[in-house]
Design brief:
Elements: H1 5-8, E1 13-19, H2 26-42, E2 46-52, H3 57-69, E3 75-79, E4 83-84, H4 87-96, E5 105-107, H5 117-125, E6 145-147, E7 160-165, E8 169-173, H6 174-183, E9 188-189, E10 205-206, E11 212-214, E12 219-221, H7 223-233, E13 238-240, E14 247-248, H8 258-261, E15 268-269, E16 273-274, H9 312-337
Parallel strand pairs: 1-2, 1-3, 5-13
Antiparallel strand pairs: 3-8, 4-14, 5-8, 6-7, 7-13, 9-10, 11-12, 15-16
Length: 345
């Protein structure tokens, strides 16, 4: 999306990251460094703010919004510390979130931390990975958004209105929070004293983010989905940009099973070893693999002299005899080293 740089400079972007334990991924860090450099290059006013050691994500987001509202910035940009993103997409969201448009809230689609194996199988059967098997990694996860009811297809090249989106990569205009303050005054609360200047228990802030059970469909809503639904209830609109690509960092247990790999036609090990021809006892697809019965080696003998017994009494007697022999050798050595002193004539 194109926008004159002079128009983009009218946005003042407050990048907020809840960072539990002060930890973030390397790819997130690299993207933030690149984003900061681009902001300097294009002379866009941008501030980064991190909240460490807040274990409750709902409270962390509310604190971050409060920090934003006490500033003079116009657009709040949530980026979670496990998101890998293209810095250009932040400026694209700023261009889309035009104060003169109805795009109060805009977000990018990032995958959930799951693997949709059935989609991988369908893509392989369709031949989509024939030329480049690495293409499959782009099909792995579902995405953190839900479309507006009744929409079965979405245009890829333009922002689309959504029912819910993820705050892991979301930009919110200041006016959205101002409307919350007006429409939901009952959500004001007094935060616990957390030993900081602005959260000393003497003033109230808003609970923009919380978790709850949605009464109509009995859904348990995460804090970002709750924020989206309650925003739509007061006629705020949420848009998602389908063309954006980003990653969601997480741990994964990489399992391996050589007998299972042997069932795949043409399977290789590291691209160096192809499957061997079938032999007697080879494993075929669908065949149950019987692991070999382990043969236990006899336990090693106790320390001792070959041919001698190893019962406790014998071992004790042998140790005593060794001590006596050692004492005798020391005495003999002393007697040999003694020299007779002969007086000089």
């Amino acid at each position: 999306m194109e926008m004159p740089i002079e128009e983009l400079r009218k946005r003042k972007i407050f990048v907020a990251t809840p960072m539990y334990g002060g930890q973030c991924s390397g790819l997130y860090t690299k993207a933030c460094v690149d984003l900061s450099a681009m902001a300097v290059k294009y002379q866009v006013d941008m501030k980064f703010f991190y909240l460490f050691n807040e274990s409750l994500i709902t409270r962390a987001r509310n604190y971050l919004v409060d920090e934003f509202l006490r500033s003079d910035y116009t657009h709040l940009m949530f980026i979670d510390s496990d998101i890998h993103f293209n810095p250009n997409d932040v400026f694209a969201l700023a261009a889309i979130a035009d104060p003169d448009s109805d795009r109060d809230i805009v977000c990018g689609p990032y995958p959930k931390k799951c693997i949709a194996w059935e989609r991988i199988v369908a893509a392989v059967k369709a031949g989509l990975a024939d030329n480049d098997p690495a293409f499959l990694e782009q099909l792995v996860g579902d995405f953190v958004f839900n479309p507006v009811g009744g929409s079965n297809q979405i245009p890829i090249g333009e922002p689309i209105e959504v029912l819910e989106g993820g705050t892991g990569f979301m930009m919110i205009q200041r006016r959205a929070f101002e409307k919350w303050d007006k429409e939901y005054p009952e959500l004001q609360y007094t935060p616990d004293h957390n030993r900081s200047e602005h959260f000393d228990g003497t003033r109230k802030i808003m609970a923009y983010f919380d978790t709850l059970i949605e009464p109509v469909h009995n859904r348990y809503l995460s804090e970002d989905y709750m924020f989206c639904q309650w925003s739509r209830n007061i006629d705020l609109k949420i848009f998602m940009c389908p063309w954006m690509q980003m990653g969601h960092m997480g741990s994964y247990n990489f399992n391996g099973n050589i007998p299972a790999i042997a069932q795949v036609p043409g399977a290789t090990h590291g691209g160096m070893m192809s499957a061997a021809p079938a032999k007697a006892g080879a494993v075929f697809p669908g065949q149950q693999i019987q692991p070999p019965t382990p043969v236990l080696a006899p336990p090693p003998p106790l320390m001792g002299v070959p041919g001698e017994g190893t019962d406790p009494a014998t071992l004790q007697d042998r140790a005593a005899r060794r001590r006596e022999a050692a004492v005798k050798r020391r005495e003999e050595k002393k007697s040999k080293t003694k020299k007779k002193v002969t007086p000089k004539k």
